Amino acid sequence: MRKSALFLLAAIAVGCGPSYGPQGVKSPEELLDEQLEADKEREATDTDTDGPTEDTDMDKRAQWDQHQSELELIRAARSAKQCVGVVTSEGPQGTAKVTLTFSPDGNVKASDINSPFKDTPLGKCILNAMANVVVPPFSGDDHVIDWEIDLDAKGEGGE
C-alpha cells in the first residue's frame, strides 16, 4: 500500500512539474506591446481578404429597408381599398398607381396618384391612407416608391 501511495505521489509530482513559460506579472508596457502586436496581425489578415465585407448593424439600419417598407405599404393599401366603400359617389375603378416620396426620417414627404383618380374624392381618400405610411429611418436622399392598388379585386397592392 505504501509503495502504491509513493508511486501515486511521484506521478502527481511529475505531472505537476514546473512550467517552462515566463513567470510573474506582466508590466503595462508588456501588455500594451502584446495588444499592439495582436492588432497588427489582425489588420494584416483583414486586409488580405478578397471576399465581401459585411455591413455593420449601423450600416444596415442606415439603408432603405425594402422588406419593412413593403409591409407598411401593404397595410396602407388595405386601408386605401376601404375608400371604395367609404366614398359613395361614382368614381373611377381599376388600378390606382400611387407615387410616394419618403424623406430620410421615414415619413412621406410627397404623394401623387395617377389619372383618372387624381382630384377625385376616391383619389384623395387613397392618398390620405397612403400618406400615413411611416418606414424605418434611412440615410441618404429621398426614396421614391411607385405602388399599385387594385381597386376592382381583393388582391394586394404591389410595386
General description of the model:
The protein is α+β, with helices and mostly antiparallel strands and 159 residues long. It has a domain of 84 residues: TolA/TonB C-terminal domain (2-Layer Sandwich), CATH 3.30.2420. The chain contains 6 helices and 3 strands. The protein has a 3-stranded antiparallel sheet, with helices on one face. The longest helix has 20 residues. The termini are far apart.
Essential attributes:
single chain, 159 residues, alpha+beta, TolA/TonB C-terminal domain, 3-stranded antiparallel beta sheet, 3 strands, elongated
**Whole-number mean pLDDT:** 78
Q: Strand pairing plus helix content: what structural class? A: alpha+beta
By CATH, the topology of one domain is: TolA/TonB C-terminal domain
Count of DSSP H/I helices: 6
From the spread of the alpha carbons, the general shape counts as: elongated
What pattern of helices and strands is seen along the backbone?
Answer: HHHHHEEHE
User: How big is the Rg?
Assistant: 34 Å
SSE blueprint and pairings:
Layout: H1 2-15, H2 28-47, H3 57-62, H4 66-81, H5 83-86, E1 95-102, E2 108-113, H6 121-131, E3 143-150
Antiparallel strand pairs: 1-2, 1-3
Helix pairs in contact: 4-6
